[in-house]
Design brief:
- By secondary structure, the chain is of the alpha/beta class.
- It has two domains: 143 residues, 3-Layer(aba) Sandwich (Leucine Aminopeptidase, subunit E, domain 1); 326 residues, 3-Layer(aba) Sandwich (Aminopeptidase), CATH 3.40.630.10.
- Helix content is 33%, strand content 22%.
- It is built from 13 helices and 21 strands.
- The strands form four sheets. Strands 8, 9, 10, 11, 12, 15, 16, 17 and 19 form a nine-stranded mixed β-sheet that branches.
- Helix 2 packs parallel to helix 3 and helix 11 packs across helix 13.
- The longest helix is centred in the middle third of the chain and has 26 residues.
- Bound molecules: ligand BES, manganese (II) ion and zinc ion.
- The site of zinc ion has 5 residues, from strand 11.
- Zinc ion (ZN) binds next to strand 11.
């Protein structure tokens, strides 16, 4: 985990990161070093000789004069100002390329405090390595940057401290989400997920910062009627859990109370609707939503945000065995709704049903947000980098879309058309767990909507594609777990506390 500071003092690092962009038409380069003055002319000549183009994710290294090395990171087309997300990605790509080095100073064109924050976040998010499960190849791995300095005269004193704490916290808890996703199911079970989160809560300060963890075991879940979590988990030797991380602001009155609910399938084989072997390994990421909601809650406590958060993670392993749920079995979700399980591979909605009902039990929520790697249809509809948002409250969804401009995460609104609801009717139970195949992401959303009253603002975030990067690293995003949704959950709570 890197430490991040913001300063416009003398540059002590041997490595300087600077932006370059391409001016339209002439194919000419433009150097974008923000508040740092540089001899652009000489540098541009060298960059042209090197064949630099300034496109996104392009890194060009040249020996420096005042620093030993200058890293140019592409910003794409030249603009008078760059979006926060462009800066976040450019800083991230540079940080990734700097693995193996200790420290670097980032001088990028950040002209607002939120742009400075984006640079700091991007540099932190690009500094990630997952080597926990390496043995003989461990020493060959390059460690990420340890110290990041963002060169800026825009913020100083307490403001600079607050921004760097935010960026450090976002980076630390994104990395926790990524670690949880990348941890193989041999080592990440519902029970071990709970202990990793409990340890993270303790390390963050636990009760002293308003955090509390509680875990319901499979025995307790069975006794209390959590038929979704039990039904999905009953085929596995690793019994299910329901994890609750709660944050109550310390010494300040909470302005609002939100529930965050995340799908926590530690491995999804599809159950008796067994998935094909090709690509099944990616289903270790099926707990990405659970990781995001728990990590966001810890981060919000560290940032002392004046909003109460109840995070719920229904955790189960969806396995194949003689005790697994059979297609046509009927289960009873917590609270009494019965569901005919026509397809045991549509398991996320079953565990979420239990958790959504439980989350509302106290009856004091201002909003509820669920996060889930719920459907393959999400990936078909929006691809691997754009997540979906569905809702029962257009205004709240629009507010969320505005917040994603701050977080920089790509989401897109999707409808919940009423006419698809009938396809979930079951001849024997209150509902079936699958319906019309076309528009499968929306059908899954409609299933969840059955557990939410119209008056409670609700968002359903389907992150199936973006949660796990199976192709190349890009910007601040590594291969494997990405940590998507965490920043938007954090920014939503910050906005609610204002
Ligand atoms: N975990 C999967 C969804 C998924 C697919 C996540 C691809 C990430 C990448 C989910 O449990 C699932 O299997 N959904 C089924 C639902 C279907 C049976 C109605 C699907 O999308 O195929
Ligand atoms: Mn499934
Ligand atoms: Zn799943």
């Amino acid at each position: 985990m890197s430490t991040i500071k913001i300063s416009d003092g003398i540059i002590k690092d041997d490595i300087l990161v600077v932006g370059i962009s391409s001016k339209s038409g002439k194919g000419a380069l433009q150097i974008e070093s923000g508040d740092l003055a540089l001899d652009h002319k000489a540098l541009i000549a060298t960059l042209n000789d090197m064949g630099a183009t300034g496109k996104n994710d392009e890194i060009t290294r040249i020996p420096g004069t005042s620093t030993r090395l200058v890293i140019f990171t592409g910003l794409g087309k030249a603009h008078s100002t760059y979006s926060d997300e462009t800066l976040r990605r450019a800083a991230g790509a540079a940080a990734r390329s700097l693995a193996g080095n200790t420290s670097a100073t980032f001088a990028l064109p950040a002209s607002t405090p939120s742009a400075v924050k984006a640079v700091a976040e991007g540099a932190g998010l690009g500094s990630y390595l997952f080597d926990q499960f390496r043995g003989s190849t461990k020493s060959a791995q390059k460690s990420p940057l340890k110290t990041i300095t963002v060169y800026s005269s825009l913020v100083s004193g307490a403001d600079a401290k607050a921004l760097s704490l935010h960026a450090e916290t976002v980076s630390r808890y994104t990395n926790l989400v990524r670690d949880l996703i990348n941890t193989p199911p041999s080592h990440l079970t519902p029970a071990s997920f709970c202990s990793i989160i409990s340890d993270a809560v303790k390390e963050a300060g636990g009760a002293s910062i308003g955090l509390k963890v509680s875990v319901m075991t499979d025995t307790q879940l069975k006794a209390k009627g959590y038929g979704g979590i039990i039904g999905v988990g009953q085929g596995s030797a690793n019994p299910p859990r329901l994890l609750n991380v709660s944050y109550t602001p310390k010494g300040i009155k909470a302005k609002k109370k939100y529930a965050y609910v995340g799908k926590g399938i530690t491995f999804d084989t599809g159950g008796l609707a067994l998935k094909p072997a090709l690509g099944m390994e990616a289903m270790k990421s099926d707990m990405s939503g659970a990781a995001a909601v728990c990590a966001a809650t810890i981060a919000l406590a560290i940032l002392k945000v004046p909003v109460a958060i109840e995070a719920w993670a229904p955790l189960a392993e969806n396995m194949v065995s003689d005790t697994a749920t059979r297609p046509s079995d009927v289960i009873t979700i917590y609270g009494g709704k019965t569901v005919e399980v026509l397809n045991p591979d549509a398991e996320g909605r079953l565990v979420l049903g239990d958790a959504l009902v439980k989350a509302q039990e106290a009856g004091d929520l201002d909003a509820i947000i669920d996060v889930a790697t719920l459907t393959g249809a999400q990936v078909v509809a929006l691809g691997t980098r754009t997540s979906a948002v569905m809702t029962n409250n257009e205004e709240f969804s629009q507010h969320f879309m505005d917040i994603t401009k701050i977080s920089g995460e790509a989401f897109w609104p999707m409808p919940l058309p009423v006419e698809l609801r009938a396809s979930l009717d079951s001849p024997v139970a209150d509902m079936a767990n699958i319906g019309e195949r076309m528009g499968g992401m929306l059908v899954a959303g409609l299933f969840l909507k059955e557990f939410i009253p119209d008056e409670l603002p609700w968002l359903h975030l389907d992150i199936a594609g973006p949660a796990y990067n199976e192709s190349e690293p890009h910007g601040y995003t590594p291969v494997g777990g990405t940590g998507v949704a965490l920043r938007s959950l954090i920014e939503m709570a910050i906005a609610a506390g204002k």
